[in-house]
């Protein structure tokens, strides 16, 4: 595999593209009553995010308040049973569910709960204790904080925390709710800072908590179920190591606080703009609120880095179970933007997927296409599905498998270009269905973001 090459054999690629253009020149689809010409096939390479396009290391700050100055909110212990698992959909594993939401006690914070800060502003400290939690996320209503405010989050043993701006909180949500980055442990402390001259809100509520029974960035899980045990660690391959840095863990939290982990893939564009586009399964992220809730575990050249990953939803297609997002913040330096292809996939094409089963480190599986199927065969269709289209690629594995938490993983051809997105697989070791990227690209007119513009 050569992830830095556009084609392999240039003459063969040019002939395939020339023949495909001839087919697409007479092909058309009806969408919303308009006749739209299908674009010619495209194949672009992977590229490492350069240092000037990556996010700088964040600054970290110590807490401003003593424990005695922090308001404590305690919630009852929650049993771990029922917090973790995959929601069965027919025989297909879903995202890996690792936590549930709970309403916090109806405590309203008023200006009397705020303390003066050394710079003449004000600070509010709130600690939430949730016995039995492995990690916690807390929600804030968007309209409650001014853009000039900032938020710091501390776990029980943390001595420093990053600052999140009020503007970032407001911009991260389309549903009126902001979900904090996860904090490890059974206690989370929030410090909300206001600059001088800004009055404390008359009322501030923390509506819900997401109680995590598994840590989303864990590097090992002793309780892997049987399907996940067949997932193979990455072999010593430079090509796969590069693609692994385009593969990320996603933590998604619904407005009610239910949390799950999935896999996602960063995509390159043509010409390269280094805009952070992310592809994942629609059953992981299909609404603006879910996109806004993202936290991401990045694999960089120097290791795993976790960070808020709030995104804007650009397009979702139920027929292929695929969503395209645009991250609101640049990724850290050292990640890779994966190449992709809309060229046809044949049965003799070697294929590979890199995925994060149950939120684990990168695993892989190798196989081949055994069937191209319509969305009606797996109950993914909506009313506007074309009756003669291919929506999913069914892959039979020769090595490895996928499992819950793998959803949204990329399927790559022999040149390391993405051709599909994992929708689901058949337990325990059977084939898996990937949304065909070429169909999503065509139906969603993804060239609007990924390029190239149609001729």
Please describe the topology of this protein.
Blueprint: H1 10-26, E1 28-31, E2 34-37, E3 43-44, E4 47-48, E5 60-61, E6 71-74, E7 85-86, E8 96-103, E9 115-116, E10 122-129, E11 135-141, E12 150-155, E13 161-165, H2 166-171, E14 177-179, E15 183-184, E16 187-194, E17 208-212, H3 226-229, E18 232-233, H4 238-244, E19 247-253, E20 259-267, E21 277-281, H5 288-292, E22 295-300, E23 303-308, E24 311-317, E25 322-327, E26 336-337, E27 340-341, E28 351-355, E29 363-373, E30 392-399, E31 410-412, E32 418-425, E33 432-436, H6 437-443, H7 447-450
Parallel strand pairs: 6-10
Antiparallel strand pairs: 1-2, 3-27, 4-26, 5-13, 7-8, 8-17, 8-20, 9-10, 10-16, 11-14, 11-15, 11-17, 12-13, 12-16, 18-29, 19-20, 19-22, 20-21, 21-25, 22-23, 24-25, 28-29, 28-31, 29-30, 30-33, 31-32, 32-33
What does this structure look like?
With about 450 residues, the chain is mainly beta. The protein has a domain at about 60-210: Jelly Rolls, CATH 2.60.120. Helices cover about 10% and strands about 35% of the residues. It has helices spanning about 10-25, 165-170, 225-230, 240-245, 290, 435-445, 445-450, and strands at about 30, 35, 45, 45-50, 60, 70-75, 85, 95-105, 115, 120-130, 135-140, 150-155, 160-165, 175-180, 185, 185-195, 210, 230-235, 245-255, 260-265, 275-280, 295-300, 305-310, 310-315, 320-325, 335, 340, 350-355, 365-375, 390-400, 410, 420-425, 430-435. Strands 7, 8, 11, 14, 15, 17, 19, 20, 21, 22, 23, 24 and 25 form a 13-stranded antiparallel β-sheet that branches. Strands 5, 6, 9, 10, 12, 13 and 16 form a seven-stranded mixed β-sheet that branches. Strands 28-29-30-33-32-31 form a six-stranded antiparallel beta barrel. A hairpin with a 2-residue loop joins strand 1 and strand 2 (about 35).
């Amino acid at each position: 595999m050569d992830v830095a090459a556009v084609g392999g054999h240039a003459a063969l690629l040019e002939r395939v593209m020339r023949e495909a253009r001839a087919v697409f020149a007479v092909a058309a689809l009806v969408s919303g009553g308009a006749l739209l010409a299908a674009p010619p096939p495209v194949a672009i390479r992977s590229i490492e995010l350069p240092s000037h396009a990556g996010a700088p290391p964040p600054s970290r700050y110590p807490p401003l308040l003593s424990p005695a100055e922090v308001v404590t909110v305690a919630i009852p212990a929650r049993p771990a049973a029922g917090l973790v698992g995959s929601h069965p959909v027919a025989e297909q594993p879903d995202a890996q569910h690792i936590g549930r939401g709970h309403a916090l006690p109806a405590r309203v914070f008023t200006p009397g709960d705020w303390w003066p800060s050394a710079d003449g502003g004000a600070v509010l400290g709130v600690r939430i204790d949730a016995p039995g939690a492995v990690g916690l996320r807390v929600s804030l209503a968007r309209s409650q904080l001014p853009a000039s405010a900032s938020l710091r989050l501390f776990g029980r043993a943390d001595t420093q925390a990053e600052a999140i701006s009020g503007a970032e909180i407001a911009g991260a949500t389309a549903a009126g709710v902001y979900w904090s980055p996860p904090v490890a442990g059974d206690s989370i402390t929030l410090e909300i800072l206001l600059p001088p001259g800004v009055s404390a809100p008359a009322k501030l509520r923390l509506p819900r908590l997401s109680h995590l029974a598994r840590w989303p960035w864990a590097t090992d899980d002793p309780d892997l179920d049987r399907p996940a045990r067949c997932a193979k660690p990455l072999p010593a391959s430079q090509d796969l190591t590069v693609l692994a840095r385009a593969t990320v863990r996603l933590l998604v939290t619904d407005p009610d606080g239910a949390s799950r982990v999935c896999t996602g893939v960063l995509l390159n564009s043509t010409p390269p703009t280094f805009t952070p586009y992310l592809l994942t399964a629609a059953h992981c992220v299909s609404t603006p609120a879910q996109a806004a809730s993202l936290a991401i575990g990045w694999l960089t050249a120097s290791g795993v880095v976790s960070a808020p990953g709030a995104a804007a939803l650009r397009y979702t297609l139920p027929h292929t179970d695929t969503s395209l997002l645009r991250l609101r913040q640049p990724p850290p330096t050292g990640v890779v933007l994966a190449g992709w292809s809309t060229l046809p996939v044949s049965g003799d094409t070697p294929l590979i997927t890199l995925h994060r089963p149950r939120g684990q480190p990168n695993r892989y599986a190798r196989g081949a296409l055994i069937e191209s199927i319509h969305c009606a065969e797996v109950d993914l269709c909506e009313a506007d599905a074309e009756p003669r289209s291919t929506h999913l690629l069914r892959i039979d594995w020769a090595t490895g498998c996928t499992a819950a938490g793998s959803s949204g993983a990329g399927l790559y051809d022999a040149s390391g270009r993405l051709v599909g997105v994992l929708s689901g697989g058949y337990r325990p070791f059977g084939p898996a269905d990937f949304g065909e990227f070429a169909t999503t690209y065509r139906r969603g007119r993804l060239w609007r973001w990924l390029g190239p513009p149609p001729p």
